[in-house]
Design a protein that fits this description.
Bound molecules: 1,5-di-O-phosphono-alpha-D-ribofuranose
Number of helices: 11
CATH topology of the largest domain: Rossmann fold
Mean pLDDT: 95
Helix content: 40-55%
CATH superfamily of the largest domain: Translation initiation factor eif-2b, domain 2
Shape: globular
Length: about 325
Amino acid sequence: MTDPEVHPEVAETAEEIATMEIRGAATIAAGAAGALATQARESDAETPEAFWAELRQAAKRLYETRPTAVSLPNALRFVLADVHGDTVAELRESAVESAAEFQRELDQAQDRLGKVGANRLRDGDVVMTHCHSTDALSCVKAALDQGKHVEAIVKETRPRKQGHITAEQLREWGVPVTLVVDSAARRYLNDVDHVLVGADSIAADGSVINKIGTSGLAVNARDRGTPTMVAAQTIKLHPDTLTGHTVEIEMRDETEVIGADDRERIQGDPDGFTVENPAFDVTPPRFVDAIVTERGQFPPESIVVLMRELFGRDTARPWEG
Ligand code: RI2
């Protein structure tokens, strides 16, 4: 049997995730759930089997876009797990509702997490951010809502400069922002009360997989005595790491790092010049002071307990059929 076609809007969402028009682990999860709902809503499948085949194919297409943020497979798994029914109509309604419920829970989790993270921030604190994380920013927003004054030193975050998005969001909320290039971070760490970052995945041993540059920042922060806090909804917990798998680090295109003109200028011997563009790195748990989730704050070494509770039973890959 040939694979069913996915709906054009699903293909479009997959492309937007791959090219990072839709980016950020939580936003990717919400986008993928929305795409599954679209596939279900627009399906013209005539049998439950055909409907399921389409839905699985859509999930597979979305799954194959980016490998590191576990929020993507977790979202697909959560939405598909709640699809029930004997007829196409029942399945359709259930899939659309499951995706909507998942998106609602995602928003609520971020709000709850923000309030937990805000408890760590005191009036007048300065945070240093890396990349753009909606989970990390929800902690700042909750602190502002509590009437605290917060300032930010925002790392640019090469190569795609998502720090600019963070700066823009913080300015919108009235937070004083100082933007620095990544290599200037250490110089400013003495002026900082917290390093505050998000996560794309968290491994069972408490390692944090986040935007490239996070691990160097955390090591420098420890050296300066500045605590590092990671804001991550439980959808960022990577269940495969419970059984010894490691998290795949996405390697992206070299054109994000170097343009054609610069490449031509630098390369003398084309075979002797390579560019690598890893999108993420791994921060060992000993450099992380706290992981803040919607279930409360955890020392990284104990996150495995929460991971077992939430994911212990189910690491299924329903998109594989
Ligand atoms: P939220 C981003 O990855 C960053 O690494 C960020 O820290 C993480 O996702 C979590 O973002 P990318 O998609 O889920 O920019 O907190 O490569 O928004």
